[in-house]
Structures are given as C-alpha cells and as structure tokens.
Amino acid sequence: MSILIDENTKVVVQGITGHDGSFHTRGMREYGTQVVAGVTPGKGGLDLEGVPVFNTVAEAVRETGANASVIYVRAPFAPDAIREAAHAGIELVVAISEGIPALEMARVLREVTPLGTRVVGPNSPGLISPGKCKIGIMPGAIHAPGKIGVVSRSGTLTYEMVWQLSQHGLGQSTCIGIGGDPIIGTCFLDVLRLFKDDPDTEGVVLIGEIGGSAEEEAAAYISQEMRKPAIGFIAGRTAPPGKRMGHAGAIISQGRGTADEKVRALEAAGIAVARVPAEVGPLMKQALGAA
Amino acid sequence: MNVHEYQAKEIFGRHGIHVLEGRVVRTAAEARQAAAALGGPVVVKAQVHTGGRGKAGGIKLASGPEEAEAKATDILKLSIKGFPVRKLLVTPAVEIEHEYYVGAILDREDGLPLMMVSGEGGIDIEEVAAKTPEKIHKLHFDPDHGLRAFQARELAHKIEPNGRQALGIATLLVKLSKAFLAAGASLAEINPLVRCADGTFLALDAKLNLDDSEVALRKDLEALRDPDGSGGHTDKAREFGLSYIPLEGDIGCVVNGAGLAMATMDLVKHFGGDPANFLDIGGSSSPAKVVAALEILTADKHVRVILFNIFGGITRCDHVAEGIVAALEQTHIELPIVVRLTGTNEGRGREILEESGAAIFAGTMEEAVQKAVALAAGTEVKG
User: Fold this and answer.
1) Would residue A247 show up in a list of annotated catalytic residues for this protein?
2) E-state strands within A63-183
3) Tens digits of per-residue pLDDT, B20-60?
4) For A278, which residue in chain B has the nearest alpha carbon?
5) From CA A123, how far away is CA A126, in angstroms rounded?
6) Is B96-222 CATH 3.40.50.720?
7) Is B251 touching A (CB cutoff 8 A)?
8) Distance CA B133, CA B136 (A)
9) Residue A1, in any domain of the structure
C-alpha cells in the first residue's frame, strides 16, 4: 500500500499546455501515472498527446472522473487554480507552483479546507508512490518500491535522500515534498498520521530545515503516537542566523527554529538524526533491525 | 524584502496611523536644513535594513540645526551590522508619556495573521517576551477583513487601563492590520507606539517586511526597493533568479535547491572546510544562470575552490555543464571546479564537461565535498 496516491489515482493537470505542464505531463505518463485530463482555460477541445484538454476542472472531473489535480500554473493564477479544483470536488490538489504570496495562500486554505480538499504544497516537488503513481516533478528513476515513507520540506534534498535510500536497498512506500513556503496545506503531522496508519509503511524518514517549529511538533507526535522507527535529518546546521523577522519573529518563535533546537527535539523523542546524508540509509537499516 | 522606516511610515500614514512629519536626507548639510525647517529639537535616524540602530549609535537627539549637522556627520560614517549608512531620517523630537509594542505578523503554524501587543514597548521588547511572556497579548485575525473592532478593543484594554486611551489604541490596531494586509506583508510593527503628552498615539518607529512573492507581483511594492540596500552581487543574483548569501569561507558553492544547498554547506563544515556562500540556482536552470553564478563566485577573492552539487529534477545536468563551459570560455577561471551531477540528463552533462576538461568529477555529494575541502586546504599551503 501507499498513502494518498496509488495506481488507481486519476490525475488532471492544470496548466497542461504550458512549458512546465506539458514537460512534466510527459514525465508523469512515462512513469505510469494515469493522467486522464488537462485543463487550460480557453483551450478546451485540444488533445495533448492523447490527453483531452478541458476549459474547466469541473468539466474535466465530469468527463473523466479525475480525483487528483496537479498545478503547474504560474504564481499570479495559481491561487485561483487551487480554488477551482477544490470547488470541482477534487480531493487532492498538488501545487507545484512557486511564488504564491503567503497571505493569499492563507486565504486559499481557509476557503478550500472546509470543502474537504487536501492541498500538498505550494512550492512542492509533489509526491510519488514508487511503481504506482507519480504526481510532480521528481526524477522517477531514483525511487524504488518499498516500505519507507519519506516526508520533507525540501525538493532536491529529498531526491538526494531517496537516492541514498534506494542505493541501500530501502525502497519507499510514498515520498512527499510538503513544500518550502511559510504557509502550506499539508504539514509533517498530517503526513505522519497517514504513515502511522499505513500497514505497508515500516519506517519513516523526516527531512527538515531551519525555521518554524514543524519539526519539533513532528518529534512530539512521533514519540507519543508512532510505533514505527523514524530517522531525521535537518538541513541548515551551519547556516548563518536567518533573516530575523524583526522583534515579532523572535517573539513568535521564542528561540525555536534553529537546527540545534530541532535536532535536540528529535533526539529527545528517540529519533536518530543523521549528521550527514550518507548516514540516513545505515541508520534506517539499524532502526528497522532493532524494531 | 525590507523597506526603510521612512517608507513604512508613509504607508502606515496612508492608513490613518499618526506619524511625525520627517525629512529624508543624504548629507549632513541637508540634515541641518531639515532641522531648521522642522524647528526645535530633532532626532536624526539612520535608515538601514537592520535592527539595533539605537544601540549602534545610529539614532541621535539634536537640539537644533547645528547639532543635527554634527550628529548626521557621525552617523553617516557608521556601518551598522555591515550596512553602511547612506540615508538619514530627521524628525521632530517628542515628549513621550508611555511606550507600547504593537505588531502584525503572519503566523505560519496556524496559517493566519496575528496581532501582538504589549504595554511594555521599546528596545527591550524581546527581553519582555522572553522573561514575561504573559505581558504579550496575541489574537489571530481574518486575512480578508483585518482585525475586527471588538478584537482590537479586547487587546487594547489588556495593555492600557485607562478606557479612553485604550479606545485610541484599538482604533490604531485596526488600521495597522489593514496596512499589513494591503501591503501583503509578513510583518508590520510599531515599536515603540508612544502616547504623547497631549494624549495622541504616534508611531515613533515603523518596521515593514514585505513578502518577496508579493513584491514580485506588484510594481508599487517593487518601487520601494532601495538600490543601495543590499549590494552589487546580491542584486546581480536576483536579476538571474539566483538566491545568494555571501559568507566568510573559501569554498564557493553552487547548488540547486535551498535544502540541498544548506545540506551541502553543512557537509563542507562537517569535513573541516568553510563555505564561501549560500547559492541556490533554483529549479529551471539555464546555462546563463550558471554563468552568472560563476561570475559572482569568482568576484569573491576569498574563493579557492568552486563546488557544484546538482541533483537534477527540473534542473538539467546538461544545462549546468553548458553553463560551466560557457563561463570558462567567457572569463578565465583558474580555480579548480569540483562537480557532482546526478539526475536528469546526467550522462550528457558529464560528456560536455569531459570534452572540455573543465572540471573534477565526483560521484556523490560526500566525495565532491571532500575533494573540494582538500583542494581548498592544498591551495592554502601553496599560496
């Protein structure tokens, strides 16, 4: 099994006729993803290498039964694209678009969450259940089907980690990039809950970064709720003190958000933290052996 | 993006927040004229993109034009946390009865804007927050409408016992929340907000941090950018869509993706080296971006080795290789270049570089970093 997406997921690509949209549609189809429809306003009726293009998401859903959407629309139009997908009844919206203003994203989430839509991203590389379905921009070939769940705030650093895991013979159930923006739809905690209940996920790799306190919250959840081994990695240990957001930033973070703080929180929760990327595979093997 | 105090005050002023009339000047002589025009004692304030100006000697009281000129001369010589002072704000000095803290911020954990207030504002607000967090009061507000009047009153009554004065603060809080939303800001802060002897409230200082994504979509906000604010290479990096932060070390890093870039810097340190910078060439790479990155790094005279760590997804390894070759054709680079390329079009990228003989290859991130660290140390011995 896997979480959120599998071989039955039917994907509609929003912005399919654009440069990125058409390129990655090809990549997703080559991987075996069921791309059933594309949407570009004003270009309905086109056929893109066998994928029918519609003017609206509602129409695409009606005609093809799409239940997941991926958004390659540029930032100024991406918030509307997310809203459109949610109002058309799409359950999972994966927002690849980067550069959406954070306040606007806060408004979008407040609107679409009550509609029962889960948003992954924005500024996300997407997610992949190896061997079954890929929604996003990650290189499919570095992944291998298996039992490790990967959740990350990063893009290319996730590829690095997945590549290392695959080389150690540790395949993945699902890998999710939750996105690097301040306001995102699906957070570490949401993904951890899903991995916890997925019988085929036996271990979890959590890749964090400096800033915010999502890793600390994840650590608390893992120590209280999860019975599966977890390995952590935090990027930015040697980064210079980040651009502080004035006094208010310091006040709201209350000293949280540094790499050291996050490593301490994870280790206090009994999660082994890899010092270098190459340690992730061996640590996971060790943890699985002990579990 | 940060904007200066005088710009933040203009924006707050447009939303009906009371700010002092001020003059922005670039020379001591202009400071003298400004003081004469304003009349009475004035405050001369450095306009730089960093906090702690007061403690660094960047804010001075002057009794009149002559003293204003002298203080301006001193302040214009300063560099505060690496930011040279090029502009000053001259404003009338006021009698202060009380200092409050008020600030709006986007709370990333809850995904909503948050208003924070305290009855104990001023330069020690962070200490107040750390030692007596109960003296900071917070309320989330609606990202479409701003702080509601009843919410504003709830907060204001917590920091001001006098009912009439509390209502004055409440009115201001609603205006601040609207200014925050209109600017699409990540932070809008007044510290201190002061109560003057005549009972009016005044934004004595103003801080506004803009969301870079919002700035990219709006010309009115882009116009607030200070061309002197950051420095040449950072501007060049922005022009090419690179994210660049110069540091002290000697290993120049070029990486795709912020997370991998940070992890690469961490690994350089882990193996005993010192990164010269953070540089993320972003997702969709082009050879031109790589040329720009190499120009920026080679302009840094501390750099002894250049380290590429590329994990191709959208970024194509052949584009990166073409950029390296193009940069070497355009400019003479003597520094060793260590390259790790994995992912999209990796084979083609390697071929291009092998043909030109331009780089030292590494199969993994660990190997690349170790080679770069050894090379940096080696050159040091020779030099």
Assistant:
1) yes
2) 68-71, 92-95, 118-120, 126-129, 133-136, 145-152, 172-177
3) 989 999 999 999 999 999 999 999 999 998 878 988 999 99
4) B366
5) 9
6) no
7) no
8) 6
9) no
